[in-house]
Amino acid sequence: MTHRRTVSEYGNDFYTRPMKNKAPSFETQELREFGEVLRGRRTVNLYLQTPVPEELVRDAIEVATWAPNHHLTEPWRFILPGEQTVDKILDLCQRIVSRKKSTDLALHKRESWSQKPGWLIVTCRRSDGELRQQEDYAACSAAVQNFMLYLWKAGVGSKWTTGDITRDSRFFDIIGVDQSESFVVGLIWYGYPKLTPAQSRKELSEVLTRLP
Ligand SMILES: Cc1cc2nc3c(=O)[nH]c(=O)nc-3n(C[C@H](O)[C@H](O)[C@H](O)COP(=O)(O)O)c2cc1C
Fold it and tell me: Of all protein residues, whose CA lies closest to atom 18 belonging to ligand 1?
C-alpha cells in the first residue's frame, strides 16, 4: 500500500475538542488576520524579479492538496516548468498571438510573459460523467485557491490564467500531458508583487439571501 500523508495530531485535537454547547470566541486577532489574508489577496500582474524560494512553492503545493475533494479523487496534478519549458511556452504564446492579432502584439506579450518569475500549471483529470467532472474541477479550483492564499500570506502574489494557450494541443505537448486524460485548470504565475492592484466586491446584501 502506498504511503499517505495525514494531518497533525494538533490539527485533529484542536478541531474536535468538546465545546460544552457554547461556540468558542470568534472575535480573535488570529481570525481577523486570517480574514485579512483572504480579503487582501489580489491578482498580481507586475512582479519583482526576486526569486520565490522553491521550498515555499513546494509547501504551497502540498497545502493545495488539502483542498476538499469529493470521493477523495485528488484529481489535481501540478507542473513546475523549468526555464527550457517556459521558453517553449513563450514561443507558443508568441506564435498564437502573432497569428490571431499582430507580430507587434505577440512580441509585447512574449516580453510581458517573460517577466513572470514563477510558473505553475494545474491540471485536472478528466472523469466519467458530468457531475464527477464538475466536482473534480471544483476541487482543483479549491486547491488553486489554497496555493494562492498560502503564497499570499508569505508575501507572494499570483495570477490564475485560463487563456487560449491552456487549451492548445501544442501546450499539452510542451507540458507532457495527454489532453484526452486531463485538462488545464490554470496557468498560474507567482512572484513578489511590484504593484498590488485594488479591487472591489458587491455588497454582501447583493449576494446573500436569508430564508426563513
Ligand atoms: C478560473 C479563473 C480564470 C481566470 N483567468 C484569467 C485570465 O485568463 N486572465 C486574467 O487576466 N485574469 C484571469 N483570472 C483572474 C481574475 O480576472 C481575477 O481573479 C479578478 O479580476 C478578480 O481580481 P482578484 O483576484 O484580485 O480579486 C481568472 C480567475 C479565475 C478564478
Answer: 43
